[in-house]
Specification:
- There is one protein chain.
- This protein is of the alpha+beta class and 259 residues long.
- The chain is built from 6 helices and 17 strands.
- The strands form 4 sheets. It has an 8-stranded mixed β-sheet with strand order 6-3-4-2-9-10-17-11, sandwiched between helices.
- The N terminus is likely disordered.
Length: 259
């Protein structure tokens, strides 16, 4: 190992391990803005700061990103949901993202689409279900372990329109078959300006037992059977409770193919 590497590598490691991540990244990639945003159209988890910037560039409607370094969370916003304010988290405008992180997607992005990076520094634009549903219905999306969930706060009837909305963009009423999915969805619900207390999910009652639409038993310890109907909603306190299938509820879709 040469003398340059001998001294440079420990210095870089020291910066990454001990320095404030926001300060290090800001000095390299531009200063965080003194702004606050509400109701992200997309919420990504277990992601780094640079990758968060790349995701903002990929989505044409992303004007501002927020990165929570302690939780490795990335939230993407449109400008109309942001205002000037001090905030302890990192906010960065799309126009301030350094071109070195683009990786084939230019700053203008793909109108009403998502930019997909190709080999050789090229990119292509494809229609985005996330953008389409946000633009048409105001749905907010949360990513959990690679699966995208769309939260629709406009109530629909379960037997037709709610499930049809999910199917219309390649999805289904959400199967929340892990506690992590439930926790992340509830966290996203609580972070909204208008908080839905209930979300219709893809479960039904079979001989008095709660089952997901896939046929598997709902394993949550907080399933509440009240004999009020054959459908189920996720409540803000993380209980999954039965309800009438004729009621109108906000609902949550799960994308089963593409984003």
């Amino acid at each position: 190992m040469d003398l340059f590497s001998l001294f440079t590598i420990p210095l870089v490691m020291e910066l990454l391990l001990n320095a404030d991540a926001g300060d290090v990244m800001s000095s390299l990639l531009g200063s965080p803005e003194d702004i606050t945003c509400t109701d992200p159209f997309l919420w990504l988890n277990t992601i780094g700061y640079i990758q968060c910037q790349r995701e903002c560039i990929r989505y044409s409607i992303c004007d501002v990103l927020q990165f929570k370094k302690d939780q490795l969370e990335c939230r993407l916003y449109v400008a109309s949901n942001c205002y000037t304010n001090l905030d302890p988290n990192i906010y960065l405008k799309r126009t301030d993202i350094n071109e070195s992180v683009f990786k084939g997607c230019d700053r203008e992005g793909c109108p009403a689409s998502i930019c997909i990076r190709l080999r050789g520094g090229q990119h292509t634009c494809v229609l985005s279900k996330v953008i389409a549903e946000y633009n048409s219905s105001g749905a907010n999306f949360v990513e959990v372990d690679g699966v995208f969930f769309g939260i629709h706060t406009d109530p629909h009837l379960v037997d037709d329109s709610a499930s049809n909305v999910c199917v219309s963009y390649g999805g289904r009423l959400a199967i929340l078959n892990t506690q992590r999915k439930i926790w992340m969805i509830i966290t996203a619900m609580q972070a909204r300006t208008v908080k839905p207390r209930y979300l219709l999910v893809g479960a039904y009652k079979d001989n008095g037992e709660a089952r997901w639409a896939t046929g598997e038993t709902v394993q949550s310890t907080k399933v509440v059977i009240r004999d009020e109907g054959s459908c189920f909603v996720l409540r803000l306190d993380d209980n999954i409770i039965d309800t009438s299938c004729t009621y109108r509820w906000p609902f949550i879709c799960e994308l089963t193919s593409g984003i």
